[in-house]
Sequence to fold (615 residues):
Amino acid sequence: MSNKIAAPDAHKVSHAYQDTNNVPSRIRALPDIVANQIAAGEVVERPASVIKELIENSIDAGALSVTVSFRNGGKSLIEVIDDGHGMGRDDAILAFERHATSKIQDVADLKAVATLGFRGEALPSIASVSRLSLTTCPGGGETGVEVIIEGGKLKDVRDAPPIPGTRTQVRSLFFNVPARRKFLRSESVEAAHCHEAAVREALGRPDRGFTLLRDGKAVFEARPESGGEIDRRIAALFGGKILEQITPVECAYAGMTLSGYVSRPGVTRAGRDLQYVFINGRYVRDRLVGKALADGYRSLLPRGRFPMIFLWLTIPPDRVDVNVSPTKTEVRFVDAGSMFHLVKSGVADALQAPGGRERPGFAPSGVGLRRDFAGPAAVAKTREFYEPVAALDTSEKTDTAPQAAPAQAEPAQAELLHFDTAIPDTFVAVGQVFKSFILIEDGDRLLLIDQHTAHERVNYERLTLRYREGRIDSQELLFPVQLELTARDADLMRRAVTQFERLGFFLDHFGENSFVLRAAPSLLLETDHQAVILDIIDTVARDGLGASLDAVGEAAINIMACRGAVKAGQTLDREEIRNLVESLKRCRLPFTCPHGRPVALTLEKKDLLKGFLRK
Ligand SMILES: Nc1ncnc2c1ncn2[C@@H]1O[C@H](COP(=O)(O)OP(=O)(O)O)[C@@H](O)[C@H]1O
Ligand SMILES: [Mg+2]
Fold:
């Protein structure tokens, strides 16, 4: 058996000498056991970290199937069994040497890491804070070997029956580091973290099979997808229903590819759970990727609501540095700009693609109208579908614990109204109801359009376009309006006066804190200009965006779009209805208002028939 692991041993050399001035040396190289425990402080935060590292070793060993089990939130036992290439006797021992790895050999390799592991830290770290047993056998070998290590001390190396791969058992995590053990959370919290760690790995590699058992019970079983079909993997982990709520992303740019799924417009969640980004199969949390995603979703998300994200980014390994943190969840991009563009436009394009109106299974079996359909919450109904996964708050800064998954999922609620993403080409405008909603007949469905939200969307897109072109239609006021501002507002206004002109507001400075408004955007002719201007200034001041002119534009357009839109309670005639729907049809993203509230809901004829018991 060839020795796959290159073990540097320089770190074992310990020099204790006195210099020529006879000053005794204070510095000593730490014994391995101490060094490993220090490394464990970074690599092994909790049981879930052990699961992550062991699964990654199995994947790197070419395993096609990985079985993970844990007991008591991973505190008493974690076991990972794989059918990878295994190890010979020498390697199995060497694997526990600090910085011993088979995955890279020199600095050059570090520039293009293609494996999940490469630091050679995980096994020695884990072994230094637990009772570990590793049984392994190289492919085709006749005898296996079991290595037993307790608290970093090698206890035994003995023959074992040949198994097709490697089995690692980690018991009593932190038994010898009481301080760390004390900081572990409740069993259910740790179990939720373990679950999440396994989900991340299983999502990252759809081509491998994964089984997760918690206290002996199967949590999920995901078969290997030979074609790497990620939709099937998502379904295996979160339930098939989720597929109806996501839309595919597929694009390439500058040698990078992006593929996966994101939630359809209008489908949002209260938290950032169900957001997974993988770079070359590695789960990462990256601020820049997050920003690109947010930009891609711009104007489709209500405040405090989040999309579902399942994205796989492939970047040539030498274009991304994964050696940034010990847990490797952070990365550095050689070409951050291109990555940003790829993610942002990839997501934006996917959201623009006409949403499929045919969504089998989306319609409910029963009849019953959700009362809260008007709010964005109504369209965020993934909860019942994914519930097996704990709602984890994985945000790095907060130390909030994940809530363990409730034993029972919420009963699926029957719904008659569906969030819709397609405004029909030809339609019959039935009329207006409650002076708030427009009714449209389109084949076998009835569309209800929120007149204010719809108009807001139309205005928003029109204004954004004109603003970019540098001209928003403006009209002289018959009676100029005098504005008395506070010192703060006046200061802001002075700095943003050209910006306001681009927005269509022409103001003259009229001494100290006074201004005179001579012309206003045509869209807003019938509104209270002063109120709009003060609104814009307020938002800008509150968000602390005083300096950034583009931010002023963005905030202003949002406000103008809303102020210039018809309100609920306003009667619309046929002509106005038709104009509004026609303009909406031409929108790039006709699904939500700029704040993410749905524009249209549909009622299917077949559901009506069902309701009237006419089948
Ligand atoms: N499940 C496994 N199957 C085969 N070899 C393994 C397995 N786990 C670990 N190894 C070997 O042990 C070495 C050390 O593992 P680890 O400490 O996790 O470091 P790294 O993964 O960074 O190389 C790996 O490089 C690999 O050669
Ligand atoms: Mg490893």
